Amino acid sequence: QVQLVESGGGLVQAGGSVRLSCVASGRAFSSYSMAWFRQAPGKEREFVGVISWRSGSTRYADAVRGRFTISRDNAKNTMYLQMNSLKPEDTAVYYCAANRRDVWPPRTYDTWGQGTQVTVSS
Question: 79-94, pLDDT tens digit by residue?
Answer without folding.
Answer: 999 999 999 999 999 9
